[in-house]
Amino acid sequence: MISAHPFTGVGSGNFYRVYNEFSSTRPFVAHNTFIQLASETGIVSGLMYLLLGWGFLSTYYRQRKYDKENFDPFLLATKEAITGAAIGFYASATFLNLATYEIFYFLLVLKVLQDRLTLEYVLTKDLQQKELLV
Known about the structure:
With 134 residues, this protein is an all-alpha fold. It has helices at 15-18, 33-41, 43-67, 73-93, 102-133.
């Protein structure tokens, strides 16, 4: 399906309906979120899904350098919890179709909020340190 419709896919929610055109077996879901998403909405959206997962991990490792300093315990706990939940989601999404599962979008919102709070905390802390030096 992906090779036949690489850019547009077969349409959101149409994997089950179009499956018979590509296979003679009984139609099922893809049992892999990336494959299902790329089949239905195109390879670009499938890659965007993978990039979101990469974003979870890259910001986690980037923010780890601030953990060694006097980091806010609440922000540290939320960062660990959200990243752990995202890793769990992506691990289960390897074997299930979770593209339209609400928890994924909830995790995205939590991650954006947590990143924003972390940035605000770091900027405030840097500003306070500069004021102490002056």
